[in-house]
Amino acid sequence: MDNQKDKIAIIAKNQNLLDLLEESFLLYGKFSISIFTNNSILDLIKKADKTSALIVSIDIIDNLDKKHLNFFRENEKKSIFLINKKDKKDILLEKQIKPKSIINIPLSISNIIQIIESLIREEVNKMNDITMGKFSLDVVGRKISLNKVNEKLTEKETEILWMLLNKIGHQISQKELLKEIWGYDESIETRTLETHIYRIRKKLNSIGAKDYKINNIDNSYILSLEKS
Length: 228
Description:
Elements: E1 7-11, H1 15-28, E2 32-36, H2 41-47, E3 53-57, H3 66-74, E4 79-84, H4 90-94, E5 101-105, H5 109-125, E6 130-132, E7 135-138, E8 143-146, E9 149-152, H6 155-166, E10 172-173, H7 174-182, H8 190-206, E11 212-217, E12 220-225
Parallel strand pairs: 1-2, 1-3, 3-4, 4-5
Antiparallel strand pairs: 6-7, 7-8, 8-9, 10-12, 11-12
């Protein structure tokens, strides 16, 4: 389902470019795609916090007002700008925008996807502590706590539980967990993930967090908060 996918915003004037990008990403299938033009940037601003990456055609910034320009400056670290050879890259400097990446047209879709996935992994690695009522996940200390009862976690257990807690109530595929936690190493088997999940379940039960249930559904994991 789309609400389990990382959300990507595509912003451009050129309809052919929009169609190409939308078709390519739909074929790739991993991301949830939203399309925006000059007239709908206000809608994008409202959804920016839930957007993992922005793909922006440079022609979109030609006649933007100060508010819209500030939006792109504030979100430059998750922006990928697309530039034709005839366009001047220094227009970004003039607008004081320093995007995550600049890609020349004609496009390499695979290159864009690699950059997006790298960007998302960087964000995942910026883990913050999580507190839910009396339950907490201490990322730096690698431990979970409930009512002052603690259990230590390994590095991988911390990363897995952090991902599950950040998408509580939503399925995360085994493939996505393996890729995000262990990278692109194809030698890592599903059994490795299952073992880590088993240990996390035991540690949740050990501190009395029995309401936090991790279930395996259709080769995916979902963490649910089930009040007993």
